[in-house]
Every structure is written in structure tokens, then in C-alpha cells.
């Protein structure tokens, strides 16, 4: 039985949200901190991490192991992007339905809003979510034109397409709710 709280059903918590930062960023970013901060400002109580491979962690392991198989990955409005976290990393480049929007923390569709002139996301990973140390903007610490980062043009309908770009580009950065949070009132 689902309880209603502030007109939101508790089932809202039975999924993980994939949300974009409010502005595009170059390869020099503090993305985890910005994901955390913007989620808090948007009134979201869960923890959000950058949808990026880093020097400490492969993208595929950002979500807790216990939450990788049974929770759908949804946009800010609860529309399904992926059946579960693991399905993003099955080798097909993170194929998703391009008709399901990806929203920023402030509610804008990154695919149509002019604040993101280049519809490309940074990820720094292989198609299986493993870090590419030669293509992740020196662990996301440089916007140098000569450095490179792995990114994916969203028009292709893939989050993990394998394209290399200069770290000086300003692209979309996604954040993933990285652990299931049960409703404290439930």
C-alpha cells in the first residue's frame, strides 16, 4: 500500500533519478559537489553523484550494488529512461528513448533548452562504464584545450557513445541519485 505525502506517492522513492546540472561545464569541474549542492537547493533529500568515471571510481559502480538491478532510472518527472542501472552498461552505449526528456535540477529539458548549446554529456568511460584515464580531462581537473574527455552526443540516443572532445568544451553534466532512500514517513 502506497502512502500519499505532499501529493507525492511514496513510490517516488522506488527509483533513481538522473538529472543534469543547471549549466554546462568544461572538463575542470567539481561535479560531485555540484550534484550534491544543486540537489539540496532543489529540495531533493537523496544523495546525488556525478554521472562520470573518476580517478577513484568507475561510472558503473557509482550506484550501490544493492540498487543496481531492481530500481528504474528515471528523469526528474519520474519518466523511465532505463529499466535499471546495470542496463546502461550492457555494451550498447547506454541507449535510451530520446523522446523521454532529461531535465536539469531547475526543471529545464537539456535537449531543447538553449542554455546547453551543445547536446553532449561528459562521461569519461567506456561503453561498459569503466574509466578511460586518457580521456577524462585529467580526472575532471582541466579545461585545457589539449586535454581530452570522453563524451556522448545525446541526439544519438546514447549516454555512453564513444566520442573524444577537447576538455575546453562546455557540455552537459548528469547526476545520478546514487542510493535508494526509503520514505522516512513510510
TrEMBL record:
InterPro entries noted in UniProt: C-type_lectin-like/link_sf, Collagenase_NC10/endostatin, CTDL_fold
Collagenase NC10/endostatin domain span: 16-181
UniProt-recorded name of the protein: COFA1 protein
Gene source species: Himantopus himantopus
Amino acid at each position: 500500500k502506497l502512502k500519499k505525502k505532499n501529493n507525492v506517492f511514496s513510490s517516488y522513492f522506488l527509483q533513481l533519478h538522473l538529472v543534469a546540472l543547471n549549466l554546462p561545464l568544461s572538463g575542470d569541474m567539481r561535479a560531485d559537489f555540484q550534484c550534491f549542492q544543486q540537489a539540496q537547493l532543489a529540495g531533493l533529500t537523496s544523495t546525488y553523484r556525478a554521472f562520470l568515471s573518476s580517478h577513484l571510481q568507475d561510472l558503473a559502480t557509482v550506484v550501490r550494488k544493492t540498487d543496481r538491478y531492481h530500481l528504474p532510472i528515471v528523469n526528474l518527472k519520474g519518466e523511465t529512461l532505463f529499466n535499471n542501472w546495470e542496463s546502461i552498461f550492457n555494451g550498447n552505449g547506454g541507449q535510451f528513448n530520446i523522446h523521454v526528456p532529461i531535465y536539469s535540477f531547475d526543471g529545464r529539458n537539456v535537449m531543447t533548452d538553449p542554455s546547453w548549446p551543445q547536446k553532449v554529456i561528459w562521461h569519461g568511460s567506456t561503453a561498459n562504464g569503466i574509466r578511460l584515464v586518457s580521456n577524462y580531462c585529467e580526472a575532471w581537473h582541466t579545461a585545457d584545450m589539449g586535454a581530452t574527455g570522453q563524451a556522448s552526443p545525446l541526439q544519438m540516443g546514447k549516454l555512453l557513445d564513444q566520442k573524444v572532445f577537447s576538455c575546453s568544451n562546455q557540455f552537459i553534466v548528469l547526476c545520478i541519485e546514487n542510493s535508494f532512500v526509503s520514505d522516512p514517513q513510510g
